[in-house]
Amino acid sequence: MKLYNPRKGSATISYAGVLEKLEIFRSTLQWANKLERPAIQKLLHQCNHLRDEILQLSHRERFVEASTIHAKNKNASDAERRQALVERSFVFEGVFGENPKLLEALEVAEKAAPTDLPVLIDGESGTGKELMAKVVHANGNRADEAYISVNCGAIPESLLESELFGHNKGAFTGATHDRKGKFESANGGTIFLDEIGELPLTSQVKLLRVLQSHEIQRVGSDQIKQVDARVVAATNKDLRQLCQEGTFREDLLYRLNVIHVTLPPLRERQDEIPLLYQYFCDEAAERMHRQPIKMTKRLNDFLLTYQYPGNIRELSNIIYRLTCLSTGIADLEHLPEAIRPDKKGVNKDKYTDSNKITFEVGSLTDYKKTASDRAEKQFLQEGLREVSGKVAELARRLDMNRSHLQTVLKKHGIQSKTFRPKAKESKV
Ligand SMILES: Nc1ncnc2c1ncn2[C@@H]1O[C@H](COP(=O)(O)OP(=O)(O)O)[C@@H](O)[C@H]1O
Ligand SMILES: [Mg+2]
After folding, report:
1. Reported pTM
2. Neighbours of 283 (CB within 10 A)
3. How far is the centre of ligand 2, averaged over its atoms, from the C-alpha of 415 (Å)?
4. For the domain that residue 305 is a member of, what is the CATH number?
5. Residues 54, 69 share a domain
6. End-to-end CA distance of the chain
7. Domain count, the chain
8. Which of 316, 342, 360 is at the close of a domain?
9. How far is the C-alpha of 319 from the C-alpha of 278, rounded, in Å?
10. Residue nearest atom 25 in ligand 1 by C-alpha distance
């Protein structure tokens, strides 16, 4: 796949130039009686070229101009940017702090919301992609219309078409009555296509057709219906890589990726942890009719520095678990066993109220030891993430004995299986 490079040659492209090429392209087709394969190849090549140029123009329009507006406001601090979002009555069903990467994602989503442009959200599992899709819906003109969510990875391939586009009675065994598909249900509103990278190639072709023509056809029906559904898609996969591997259509990627929002993993916005932690402590207490939990200092320290491979969903699950299991003061033993750290060398009798997050430093030697342990743990977690949880591969890369590596992982309470790609998440 030719990777799209917005900088390359963009200075020479203009709308007039693109239009001229389009005219040449059109008249070639208009006057051709019959096209041989080489001529088709040539036209296809020109067409691809034209698409790249239009993408570059659209990039310039969407981002370069947007960043000029941003530049006028470049003296705004992150705190002011956050405040500005709040003052603009930005609808967001959660909390956000002043992390610049997250603020950027929210600002892009806010700008995209009132348009009908497709939005593609990417980020690791649990980073808030679905929440962001709701932001796009709730801050746009369709907020009072339907919001329909479809998990493309959870529907068997044989049912996917009927699920998305509906079916008529008798279309297949078991189709006992006419049924509306998700696109029809989302008419006038938004359809959220979650885990779009899981969509089989056959369904990708059909989806592309709907995005191009805004028309659907129920399975087993000849009738064509117009639908007006705004599409927001999400993925935790690298779709460009899937295109290169041939499992995702490049033309579909371009259709979906008009506005692109990337959500950073929680380990890259650790400054947001205290805020989220407080939010979930209060939410869990309210739902379980309890007081917000109190916890020992070592548990508190753990929660502030843990790497959260499952991101915000994992943090939320941990807090709900602690609220449920602890009577009195929550401690390391209330953590899920898979992530429970070694308790040695940590002061047991201090605790902090979950409303106050405090840092305390013991002796320098203890502090160094803890820091070094933490670094070793983070290093191993990063390594496992890179090799998708394969211990043998990590041992090879680190030139370490495999059983020694297993022992070190165990010491840190790291479970390699949690880094395997298909590991199922649990939700409270
Ligand atoms: N900024 C946030 N504030 C509060 N809760 C959040 C925030 N971001 C994500 N969450 C919560 O974390 C969980 C995972 O988010 P979700 O949108 O389902 O992630 P993803 O779709 O990326 O897997 C959900 O329960 C969601 O409500
Ligand atoms: Mg999700």
Report:
1. 0.68
2. 17
3. 23
4. 1.10.8.60
5. yes
6. 41
7. 4
8. 360
9. 9
10. 313
The protein residue with its alpha carbon nearest to ligand 1, atom 2, reads 94
pLDDT tens digits, one per residue of 194-232? 999 999 999 999 999 999 999 999 999 999 999 999 999
Give per-residue pLDDT as tens, 185-204: 999 999 999 999 999 999 99
The Cα–Cα gap between 134 and 130 comes to: 6
The DSSP symbol for 348 reads S
The residue whose two tokens read 């983070």 is 378
Domain hosting residue 279, numbered range: 269-360
Query: Which of 242, 264, 286 marks a domain boundary?
Result: 264
Predicted local distance difference test score (pLDDT) of residue 25? 77
312 lines ligand 1 (CB under 6 A): yes
Measure 36 CA to ligand 1 centroid, in angstroms: 53
The phi and psi torsions of 413 (rounded to 5 degrees) equal 70, 25
Query: Token pair of 306, please?
Result: 């843990």
Contact 80, 30 (CB under 8 A): no
Report CA Rg, the chain: 26
310 close to 256: Cβ distance less than 8 angstroms: no
